[in-house]
Amino acid sequence: MLDFCKCSCVTLLTTADEPESHILCDLNEPLVDHTEGQLFLNDTFKIIMEEVLCKGTDIKHKVCEWKEPKELALLLDLELRATGEPQHRLLQRVQDVAKYSIKTSHPRFMNQQFGGVDYHALAGRFLTEALNTNLYTYEVAPVFVLMEAEVLRGLRQLVGWTEGDGLFCPGGSASNMYAMNIARYQHFPEVKSQGLCGLPRLNIFTSSDVRNAAVCTWAAFLGIGTDNVIIVEVDEGGRMIPDDLDEKITLAKSQGAVPFFVSCTSGTTVRGAFDPLDLIADVCEKHKLWMHVDAAWGGSVLFSKQHSHLLKGVYRANSVSWNPHKMLVAGLQCSALLLQDTTDLLRKCHSANATYLFQQDKFYDLNLDVGDKSVQCSRKVDCLKLWLMWKAVGSIGFAERVDKAFNQARYLVEQMKKREGFHLLQEPEFVNVCFWFIPPSMRGKEGMADYQDRLAKVAPVIKERMMKQGTMMVGYQPLGNKVNFFRMVVFSPLLTQKDMDFFLDEIERLGKDL
Amino acid sequence: MLDFCKCSCVTLLTTADEPESHILCDLNEPLVDHTEGQLFLNDTFKIIMEEVLCKGTDIKHKVCEWKEPKELALLLDLELRATGEPQHRLLQRVQDVAKYSIKTSHPRFMNQQFGGVDYHALAGRFLTEALNTNLYTYEVAPVFVLMEAEVLRGLRQLVGWTEGDGLFCPGGSASNMYAMNIARYQHFPEVKSQGLCGLPRLNIFTSSDVRNAAVCTWAAFLGIGTDNVIIVEVDEGGRMIPDDLDEKITLAKSQGAVPFFVSCTSGTTVRGAFDPLDLIADVCEKHKLWMHVDAAWGGSVLFSKQHSHLLKGVYRANSVSWNPHKMLVAGLQCSALLLQDTTDLLRKCHSANATYLFQQDKFYDLNLDVGDKSVQCSRKVDCLKLWLMWKAVGSIGFAERVDKAFNQARYLVEQMKKREGFHLLQEPEFVNVCFWFIPPSMRGKEGMADYQDRLAKVAPVIKERMMKQGTMMVGYQPLGNKVNFFRMVVFSPLLTQKDMDFFLDEIERLGKDL
């Protein structure tokens, strides 16, 4: 049985006294059987270890067990029924879910800006789930209220702030929307009560690289509208051009709008570009605009002495969002919003003063009840996984991971240059390596009329093949007038040179007949 | 060693070939040691089992190990440093986090609308964490795209809809804000591009029971403004009065505002009241308003044939939010937004058309890429825990839990009536049991001038004592002109009559000298 569970909770809870009433006789028994439940959890843990963490990170096993949707639905037997199932059947379901899910921890999963695995972070996540609490009051989450404050302090210190505020949010989008909302509130405190309907048209500025699609969604959600997101031009590397920002702000003002928010990016999604923060800060200061840095992807570079210059000037921002679930492999979700503000803007902007949550006659310091800094009533604990991992490897360990990721990306680029079929979109500034694979039949035919059309079709075919064979996962996309190209994101701590070589070999193999 | 890990991933990944270059020599080694990592995870799992799931659910152990914030910060040694720590030190940290955290699974934790434990749900949560994926494309989350659709279908069926749409959101607040945003978009599709600044003043209606504080926060976030949340009166049980809603809508129109959204509640936070949905639907139809039901707390009643009448008419709503992490014990977070709409409003309202995520030339049905239904770019998988639990107990099992919770609440009320010091706020409609404890010294002195002031101070003192002694956790709050009263929420599947009796005994013990 369960050798780790020597306490007597099970027997104690199920020892029934004589019932007081016949109608209520079942009320003396809990509806959950601890022994059976813990056995199931233990068996699930074994499956997780074997299928997800051993096989799922083993290059001898597939990244992906591709099935067509209809076939997969049948295999999983998803239907929810009136009656329950026996434990062995449920364990088979756990096994099936693991089997047919993408192995995002696998060294050959490079499809997204998350992936890999860190066991300390994962331990922190299991503990978070087991403790199942809501990060809103000191009363219900004493450890995590203090821990979150410490982790935010540590992240702010890397930005260059000794004071400030912040919060973990459910993903980068939420962090960025929070920043927008706080900036709006700072400019027009009356917006909280009166809304936007009496206000002038507000303008937001961001660059023309891809994440502007997301910025538009957030602006729409906040009632600002996508038309009020002004797109600033980028240079050839995908970096916002400060002079263009300056001109567009001036233009917007002349058209009667009120510019209030600039969203710069440190590490764009596709190209991994870093906007020139120092120069943008000059423009923001000149026009008195809120400067926000979306460092969801690139923020982790701040750990590295060698590469942190990419975010030079970040300390001049008003707010920074940073997702340690990306480059630091903390696990989804882990997204911090950091604020330079020391005037309690976050709380003032978001508080609801709900007396049922935040009683004013409590016996401890009410500033510890952080829940009214958030518009969420339930907020998951996202700090423990990062805290535990940070304790395990230290800031030096994080720096080592970042530096190694840059070196791996450099190695990958060098290898590409040695091979005939790989054509880089640009020299990478970060760990995003963007390239076209030119199949043998197309090499040397760049002048042909349908070359770009044909090239656009290469990546989707290779992608379909790699998915169906399950050997690896790499993403592709078009960008502006550039047709479909692959983007490798090189950051998983599991990666080795051999994996890099494999990626290139495999793309050649999958695309050689195209 | 690890008997569950028989595969050779560790050795395979750390077998280094000769490095190609001296600069890059470390690139042949992964930065994560699987053997060491899996051992740590295994040890953490043992601590979770023992501290959180055995002791943490055992009535012989405390719910809460209260420490003052400064003392706790010292005990936890939260500081983040440059260098990492050895495994045994990290395991001690895991142990400390477990020790000083509130045991929300404990039968005597009744402080919030979450708590208890379901082992199948917890197994689903561990698996979710290990698989670490983002629910936005079929490509990266094939199992969960299909599973989420099926779970949403099952929940919609209980609402009474054979078709519709939906999404799991990071908490009920997000679900409710989504509903508001979609309703706004349906009324004024141009709001997505133009924002609110050219539109008339929009009005939202909700009842005067406590959750209106949250509704105000969401309205502020969406740019609508708290002044535009119109408060509808409630009856003596805390239920919205449809005639007052009708009058207030008419009044708002006459004042030039555009009413567009009514947020009803099925299971209010404090009193557990259910708004009369059928009558409210009549008013919404008459005025052509979007009817939203915030059933975060009470939605789970739909599983029970005996009690589902409390939500009679819910099928007439346009949208419903429902948090299975509350009454169904799915674990934080698990919040569904359900829509009756079949015209793809959700996607139209929230889509960003980000080409880097949703390529139009994929080799499978793009409708499976659900990510652009959400304003989040990263969205956690929240369906697996509920799906697995549903498979384990079936709809019948959920119905049994709901019915038992009602019976437990009934038992608690009956016992209170037998005791002298307990005074009910009202007969409960749901599993929220609200009451004042009248200490012996105050009994029979209701006529005294300072009676209410003295009564208001009773609950905070008892609360402080129970926290510091760690015997149980129950919440209190004032409501309107009613001074501080306790609210027990009786739903944990671990609860027995003995726990109910204990609660009453313990409140008497803690308050007998007041």
Automatic annotation (TrEMBL), chains A, B:
GO cellular component: cytoplasm
Gene3D superfamilies referenced in this protein's UniProt entry, alphabetically: 3.90.1150.170, Type I PLP-dependent aspartate aminotransferase-like (Major domain)
Biological process terms in GO annotation: carboxylic acid metabolic process; heart development; taurine biosynthetic process
Molecular function GO labels: pyridoxal phosphate binding; sulfinoalanine decarboxylase activity
Keywords noted in UniProt: Decarboxylase, Lyase, Pyridoxal phosphate
PTM sites of type N6-(pyridoxal phosphate)lysine: 326
InterPro entries xref list: PyrdxlP-dep_de-COase, PyrdxlP-dep_Trfase, PyrdxlP-dep_Trfase_major
Residues that span the membrane, as ranges: none
Cofactor(s), names only, from the UniProt record: pyridoxal 5'-phosphate
SUPFAM superfamilies linked to this entry: PLP-dependent transferases
PANTHER family in UniProt: CYSTEINE SULFINIC ACID DECARBOXYLASE, GLUTAMATE DECARBOXYLASE-RELATED
Subunit details: Homodimer.
Family, similarity comment: Belongs to the group II decarboxylase family.
Record-given protein name: Cysteine sulfinic acid decarboxylase
Organism the protein comes from: Cyclopterus lumpus (Lumpsucker)
Gene: csad
